[in-house]
From TrEMBL:
This is Twin-arginine translocation pathway signal protein. The lineage of its organism: Bacteria, Pseudomonadati, Pseudomonadota, Gammaproteobacteria, Pseudomonadales.
Length: 161
């Protein structure tokens, strides 16, 4: 491991550990109208949805409610890990250094969000690559499970029995 890689890893690990120790400080109750998603999660997800699902007819509210339904079905441990990922991305202390998005998610441009996603996808840190894959899979599953998404991708729906 080169010195630069070690420094980068140390910064990322320090930020992650600092954030996970602060997780207890973030609101754990669900936002109104949701079972699991919290008020702090919504700006992040609202910024990611149009970028991750670009080229689809995804409706933000439908994706958020599908995602909430999926998260409510997770095991407590998986939900905890997912919330930690959302916390790392939402807290200003870690958001800037880890994503390159220094302001609020609501002000982030599509280019900034794409750069963040590319940065995590190509990261030498396995933890960031796993975070990238998790974000994409969660949002894509939340949209493509919906009947509104099926026609655009040529899926006729499940067989009728």
């Amino acid at each position: 491991m080169q010195r630069r890689d070690l420094l980068r890893f140390s910064l990322g690990a320090s930020a992650f550990l600092a954030t996970t120790s602060l997780v207890g400080c973030t609101a754990q109750s669900a936002a109104p109208g949701y079972k699991v998603l919290r008020d702090d999660d919504l700006p992040l997800l609202s910024a990611l949805i149009p970028v991750v699902l670009a080229g689809t007819q995804a409706v933000e509210a439908l994706v958020l409610h599908s995602l909430d339904h999926k998260l409510a079905a997770l095991s407590p441990e998986m939900l905890k890990l997912t919330r930690q990922l959302f916390d790392v991305l939402s807290l200003p202390l870690t958001r800037g250094p880890l994503t390159g998005v220094w302001g609020a998610w609501q002000q982030a441009s599509s280019e900034q969000i794409n750069a963040f996603l590319q940065r995590w996808q190509d990261s030498s840190l396995n933890l960031l690559r796993m975070g990238h894959a998790s974000l994409l899979q969660l949002l894509q599953m939340a949209w493509y499970e919906r009947p509104e998404a099926w026609a655009a991708c040529g899926y006729p729906g499940p067989p009728k029995i």
